Each structure stands twice: as C-alpha cells, then as structure tokens.
Amino acid sequence: MSSQQGQVIFNGRYELHRRLGRGGMAEVYLARDQMLDRPVAVKVLFPALATDAGFVERFRREAQSAANLQHANIVSVFDWGEANGTYFIVMEYVEGHTLAEILRDDGRVHPNRAAEITADIAAALGFAHRNGVVHRDVKPGNVLVTADGAVKVADFGIARAISDHSDQNLTKTGSVMGTATYFSPEQARGAPVDPRSDIYSLGCVLYEMTTGQAPFAGESAVAIAYKHVQENPVPPRQIDPALPETLEAITLKCLAKNPANRYPTAQDLRADLRRYLDGARILAEPVLAPPIDPSATNVMAPTGYDSGTAVVTGWSGDDGYGDYGQYEDYTQPEEEPKRSRWFLAVLVLLLLILAGLLFLLVRNFADDSDDPTLVTVPNVVGQSADQAERELEAEGLRVARATEASTEEQRDLVINQDPTANEQVEEGSEVTITIGAGPDTATVPDVTGRTVDEASQLLIEAGFVPSQRAEENADIEEGLVIRTDPAAGADAAVNSTVTIFYSAGPDTIAIPDVRGQNENDARNTLSGAGFTGNIQAQQEASNDVPEGQVIRTDPPAGQQAAANATITLFVSSGRGQVGVPNVEGLTEDNARAQLQGFEVQILDQEVNDPNQDGRVLSQNPPGGTQVDEGSTITLVIGRFRETETTQDNGPGND
Known about the structure:
Layout: E1 2-4, E2 7-10, E3 14-22, E4 26-33, E5 38-45, H1 53-67, E6 77-83, E7 86-92, E8 96-98, H2 99-106, H3 111-130, E9 143-146, E10 151-153, H4 158-166, H5 175-178, H6 185-188, H7 195-211, H8 221-230, H9 236-239, H10 245-254, H11 266-278, E11 298-299, E12 310-312, E13 327-329, H12 338-368, E14 374-376, H13 385-394, E15 398-404, E16 414-418, E17 424-426, E18 430-436, E19 441-443, H14 452-461, E20 465-471, E21 481-485, E22 491-493, E23 497-503, E24 508-510, H15 519-528, E25 535-540, E26 550-554, E27 560-562, E28 567-572, E29 577-579, H16 588-594, E30 599-607, E31 616-620, E32 626-628, E33 632-640, H17 644-648
Parallel strand pairs: 15-18, 20-23, 25-28, 30-33
Antiparallel strand pairs: 1-2, 2-3, 3-4, 4-5, 5-7, 6-7, 8-9, 9-10, 11-12, 12-13, 14-17, 16-18, 19-22, 21-23, 24-27, 26-28, 29-32, 31-33
C-alpha cells in the first residue's frame, strides 16, 4: 500500500476514494483503477481475519474461484492482494442499490418484479453451481440492482472461507451470525451444503420481497436458526391473500426443509419462475404432509389481511425435516338451512361410495400388474452427449437433449441432467441432458490506432474485458494501440479478456559523449551504443577544438534518443575565417570600430593634403580578404604637417 498526497493506493494501482459500506467481514470502498482508469469496488478484510494462515489460503482459493465466474448476473472479481497487514478484493463497481436497501427504503416489491429479480439471481447461482461454486450467503445485501433494473449477485465463494474459518459456530460474531435470517436448515445444523442450500436462501429472499418480512425472526441467530430447522413459515398468502397462488407454491418449494423437496437446480427454479411470468403452468406443487401430529400444532395471531384466526397444522420428523401442512379457516360460518345440510350429507355419502369403488378398482389393477421397475439415474455430467445417451439408454431410460451456453471447456459435454444423479425413477422415464454449447461469442472490434481509453471503452461495449500491455514501437505514436489479442475481427467468448497492445514509444538509448574524437571514431562509438539510424557530419569552425575533431552532437550527449534516431556530428573545420572590412578613407576611430575582433596596427604617413589628416590611407590585408578571426590588420594613417610655403602663404603675410 502506498500513499500519494494523503490518498491511499493499493498495489500502486487502486486509488481508494470513499467508503461505500461495512459488513461483518470487511469494508467496501469506491476506488479508481489507475491502470484502466475506471471505477472499481475494493473490499478490504478486517485485519482480525488476516491473522489465520489457513483462512488466508482458503480466502485466496475462493477469490480465485469467484474470479473465474464471468456472467451477466454476477459481480466480476478482477484482482486480489495483500496490503497494510490485511487482504483485499477488487470487484466490478455496480452503480445502484442493494436489494436490502430497496426493501428497507421502498418496502416489498410487486410479485412479478420479485419473480424477475429471483429469476436473475437463480441464473447467476445456476452458472456458479455448474462451475463448482456454492454461494452459501445468498441474501438481499449481496444482490445489487442497477438504475436500469439489471440484477447482479456479489460475494461468490467468499462465504465459504468465512464459514470454514468460523467452524459453522452460530454463537460467534460476524457475518455468520448476521446472515442466519437466510440460512438453510442444513447450514443451521452445521451439515454439509450443496447448491440446494442456495435455493433455500433464495426462497427466503423471494419470501421477503413479496411479504415484506423474512420467513423467520428471533432475538438471536441461534433462535432464528432453530426456526429454520424446526418450524414452518407463515404461507405468503396468509400475509397477503392477493399474492398469486402459483408464486406462493414456488416460494414454499424453495423453502422445503428437506433438500430433496426443493428444486433440484437453480436452473429449474428459474424455468418455473419464467413459466409463472408467462402465465404457463408451473411445476411446483404442494408437498404432501405426513400424518398430522396434534402436538405440533401452532396457533398464529390473525394477520392484517385475515378476518379470523388461522390454525396451522404441521409435523416434525425424527430427521429434523418438516414440510408445509394443511391450512384451515376456523371462522364460524352462519348456520345453514336444514335442507342444505341434508343435501350435503347425501353428497358426502355418494362421494364416499365413489371413493370406495375407485379404491377397489385401483387395488385390483395393482394386484393384476407387476410393480413398476425402478432404476437409479447414473451421473453423466461431464460426459460427451453420445456417451451419456448410451449410458442412460443402457439403464432403460429415454433421453432428451437441450443446449445451454457454457465455458469453452464444457463445449459438447453434459453440464446438467434432470433428474439428477442417483435419483430413483421408473424404467422408461425421460432424462433431459443439457449439452454445453460453448460461450456466447462476439466479434473483436478493430481498435488499432486509437488511444488506450478509447479502445478499452469499445471493447467493454462489445462485451469484452480489456487488459493493457505496453510495447516499445518506433513506428506507432506513443499511447496508441498497435494490435489486440485476439485480433480484430476474430470471434471470442463474451466476457473474455482481450489484451490491448499499445505503443510505449521507441526503445531509447543514452547518447554517448564523443567530443574530441575524430569523425570515424565517433561513428563507431555511436553504432556500438546501439544507434542504427542516420549518423551525419557537419563542419563547424572552432577556435578551441582542433580541426577534424568532434565539437558536439545533436541531440547532445547524455540525452535519451530512439535507436533509429538521426544524430548529427559537428566536426571542427579549424579556426573561423572572416572577411576584412574595407576601412580606407575612414577616420582612425571609425576604422577601429569597424575592425572589432581584429588586432589593429597603426603606421603613420605624412601627407600634404590636410583632408587626409587622421584618415586611413591604406590597409593590409585589403578589404574583403578572408582571414582568421583575431588576425592583425595594419592601417596606414595620414598625418598632415604644415610646410614653410604653407606658413608664408598664411593669413597676414604679404
């Protein structure tokens, strides 16, 4: 973990912004993935959970399992790591609210919307179950609903590490106690769980969405867990008679105490919910109750929707399982006319006679026919379709095939069967095997030449998970995409990773110092350093560097440059040559001003013309001559002296 101006950053990549929530095992923060420049959710475990090496290993294993679950209704796990003495998970950030928040703020939801949400959760659970992951902590707090109504399930696999750590002890604090409201009976007893345990917990969520209350409540987690094992919930229509009977039947089938009476798979539950939403006949039927035990009768107070008091009759078996009993309305009706009583008595008598005749007919038929032959359904999950069909037909069973999207590894293999393995069915019964069709695919878009951010957004919109990798390239501008893997135009699994290779610019080398070397040696030095581009030379006069030696380079020594960069050697041509100005006829002072940078030597010469006094009569070298900088220029200056003739002819002389 690092800190940048007060900002906490995990693994030098995940910049924590603000806390989103706190649970029984961790705190969740909104963060920014600096590498992909996108929001993520970072779950940071409480340090107390990080002190157990066994738990850390389980947590790592479960986090990896969850990271492999790529499904539209599952919150993706991107990364996990260690920081500041604890561990964290990086997840997809879902902008929305938890189902728990929705139920708390808005109350129960419409039955049809509850069925849609439950169907989406079942789709997520079914996918996870087929990949060997049982959630173990299905609850409204782990279900996220986006603004557009999409449903996503979070925390896959994490509950397993927590429950292993806590040894299934309900008396301990933390998340185990906090989720007892949605425990399955087998979880409450500390027994091993399978996918049907998730179905029970999902039934609790469906119950709460439609009735506004959990199936069971109590003063402690232990009290609630006891009710999950020993008591039956109030039927939803006892709370709200307006609820559809079919949705109540689906809910109660999910909440069966005995796992064998629940839906065999989450896929079966989802299919029944879709039938309910389509108005078709559902498969859920009331579970037959065993003989009534009067000692198990419980009396419930009237609900806000009933006018009388209801009596619930149920039972409790020795194995700890129980199911929903008969519900009778004991509200006293008004006395009917005697004529109606006689009519009812005759009708009941006729019905009894008819029932007796039917009983005799069935018994005689049963005596004349053999008992049906039962066979055990073999486990064909993981086999090829043809192999599975042969094995099932060898047991005297009929086979129906169905297909479903799957991982690439499951393509053409059986990923589900109904009835499930080891069930007892009549010979000749039909077994439906679901064949993996491979993952849903999409075409990888062409993002070559785009920026990394643009490419990532296009890939996300196409249904892929972008990953980025820099690659040195001298031909592509830094920061632009070179290629992708899989390549543009290829078909790849939806939600699979597409790697973006982008230009990190050319490979750069520090330019060596070749000053003072001759041109040939300087070229060899640059080539030896790895430069492969054009090395050119340019002459330049120098008063300090001998002719033929390198004065400097462009770019200068020490600067980083691409291997194929052009480097210019400035080679000394010797001292610089300059043109001598023509100063003849100028006064001495003006001539000196023109000859700055030269050495000036003065020679006097007498002249008879006063106009030539103090002026340059001649110069050597003459004007226009090319000489070295600082050369000596000799000037001949005229000096006028008066003669006797001049003096005699001066003013005042006759």
